[in-house]
Design a protein that fits this description.
The chain is of the alpha+beta class. Helix content is 22%, strand content 36%. The protein has helices spanning 3-22, 26-30, 66-77; strands spanning 39-42, 62-64, 90-104, 107-119, 126-140, 143-153. It has a six-stranded mixed beta sheet with strand order 2-1-6-5-4-3. It is globular, with a radius of gyration of 16 Å. The model has no long low-confidence stretch (mean pLDDT 84).
Length: 168
């Protein structure tokens, strides 16, 4: 596959992933993850982005394997989830500046800037969280699937409790 075709396929995948998260279609979002070993990580705050940094080298805010990610999705998907009660937040994921798209040995790697906004009906204001995401995708049955998603937030501190519950 040519570089521009691969980049277009990755962009379409990112739009799908963002749409599923924004619509709270969490089971469908979880289905975007590859079989086998996976990693969903939110790195330390205000760090230089260091792709490949490991949770055993630094304190990560989130470091989920498949078991933990599946249970995270179950918890925040419940109607009575504490951080999303009484009404679920309005979430919007924005991806921009897709860079370094490479496919080597069946694995697609890239980085992309992100911006997530969250509006809660019971709070004033909007949470805005910028950052960069490093993805590793694989193909399963001709479909792109997430092997790992490593997020580095460009913030000094999190503004409110529950801020990370909706990161997807």
């Amino acid at each position: 596959m040519g570089t521009s075709a691969l980049k277009e396929e990755v962009q379409d995948f990112l739009l799908k992933e963002a749409d599923l998260a924004d619509e709270w279609a969490l089971a469908d979002w979880l289905a975007l993850w590859a079989d086998g070993e996976i990693a969903y990580e939110v790195g330390p705050l205000n760090m230089d982005q260091q792709p490949g940094l490991r949770y055993d080298q630094s304190l990560f805010l989130i470091s989920d394997n498949r078991f933990r990610l599946e249970h995270r999705v179950l918890r925040i998907g419940k109607p009575d989830a504490h951080s999303e009660s009484p009404i679920r937040s309005k979430i919007r994921h924005f991806y921009a500046h897709l860079r370094d798209v490479k496919e080597i040995s069946g694995e697609i790697t890239f980085r992309v800037n992100m911006l997530i906004t969250r509006i809660r009906a019971d709070q004033e204001g909007t949470n805005v969280i910028p950052g960069v995401v490093y993805f590793r995708l694989v193909r399963e049955d001709s479909q792109l699937k997430i092997r790992s998603k490593q997020i580095f937030l460009d913030v000094q501190m999190l503004s409110s409790p529950g801020t990370l519950t909706y990161l997807a």
